[in-house]
Amino acid sequence: MTRIAISYVSTGLVFLALDAVWLTVMGRVLYLPALGPMLQQPFNMAPAVLFYLIYVAGIVFFAVEPAAQSGQWSTALLRGAVLGFVAYATYDLTNQATLKGWPVLVTMADLAWGTLVTGASALLGHVLSGVILGWLGR
User: Which pLDDT tens digit goes with each residue over 65-98?
Assistant: First the structure.
C-alpha cells in the first residue's frame, strides 16, 4: 500500500507540474484563440480536480504499477504513452464528432501532448517512487 501511495503522489506531482506549464503557455497560444467562446471563464475547479485525481490513479494503475512489478522503466513509459494517447483521443475525437467548430489543430496538439505528458509522468513517477522507496528502505 505504501508503494502505491508514494507512486500516486509522485506521479500526480509530476503530471500536475507538467500540465500546469502546458496549460499556462498553450492556453494563450492555442486554446484561447481556437476555442474562445467555448471556454468557461473562470474554469470550473471541481471537475478539474476530479479529473486529476482520477487520471493520476489511471496512470499509476495502468503504467507505474506494472513497471514496478516488471522492474522495467520502459514499461512505465510505453504504457503511460499509450494510455495518454487513448485518453486524449477519446476526449478530442468525441469533441470533434459532436461539437461544431472543434479545431483539428487542437485535436492534433492534444493527442501529442496527452501521449507525451502521460508517458513522461508515468516514467518520472516510477523513477521518483523508486528513489523515495529506496530512501525509506523499502
Answer: 999 999 999 999 999 999 999 999 999 999 999 9
pTM of the predicted structure, to 2 decimals? 0.94
Confirm if 3 and 129 have CB atoms less than 8 A apart: yes
pLDDT tens column, 114-138: 999 999 999 999 999 999 988 988 7
Cell of 126: 516510477
Contact assessment for residue 92 and residue 106, using Cβ atoms and an 8 Å cutoff: yes
* Residue 84 in grid coordinates: 495518454
One-letter amino acid of 42: P
Q: Give the contacts of 33 (CB within 8 A, at least 6 positions apart).
A: none
* Nearest CA-CA partner of 9 in 95, 113, 121: 121
Cα-based angle 102, 25, 21 (whole degrees, multiple of 5): 110
Supply 51's cell numbers: 479529473
Q: Which residues of 115-131 are buried (b: 16+ CB within 10 A; e: fewer)?
A: bbbbbbbbbbbbbbbbe
